[in-house]
Design goal:
This protein is α/β, with parallel strands linked by helices and about 120 residues long. Helix content is about 50%, strand content about 20%. Strand 2, helix 4 and strand 3 form a beta-alpha-beta unit. It is elongated, with a radius of gyration of 17 Å.
Length: about 120
């Protein structure tokens, strides 16, 4: 691994951190390790791989869906809307019925609308 690759990993980490803070997306965090592996064991040029990863990160931040995990006791995949902010009584009922997924009290600048919920 040369100096250019290390610099590319640092810049990609900074870009992912800024996007993660602005959008609060778990998919950006999950994509970081495969991105580092792609930069380290690339078959294409470093510039092409780096630009491709920046495009992927931007697409993940702009997508209306994000990945979320939940423990229900059964395995499954479900797409449901996020519930941002502090839920009221109706919101808590929707969460208990698994019709909405709680996302937190702080609404980010660019929130995801739907959650791809992976349950186990």
């Amino acid at each position: 691994m040369n100096l250019k690759t290390i610099l590319a990993v640092i810049v990609l980490a900074a870009y992912a951190a800024v996007l993660s803070i602005l959008t609060m997306r778990g998919s950006l965090v999950l994509a970081f390790v495969p991105s580092v592996l792609a930069l380290c064991w690339r078959r294409r040029s470093l510039k092409r791989t780096f630009v491709s990863l920046l495009v992927v990160y931007t697409a993940l931040a702009a997508a209306p869906i994000d990945v979320a995990f939940d423990k229900t006791g059964t395995f499954g995949v479900q797409v449901i809307p996020f519930l941002w902010g502090l839920p009221n009584e109706f919101g808590r009922e929707m969460i208990e019925k698994r019709e909405q997924f709680p996302a937190g009290c702080i609404v980010p600048m660019y929130p995801a609308r739907y959650a791809l919920v992976l349950t186990r």
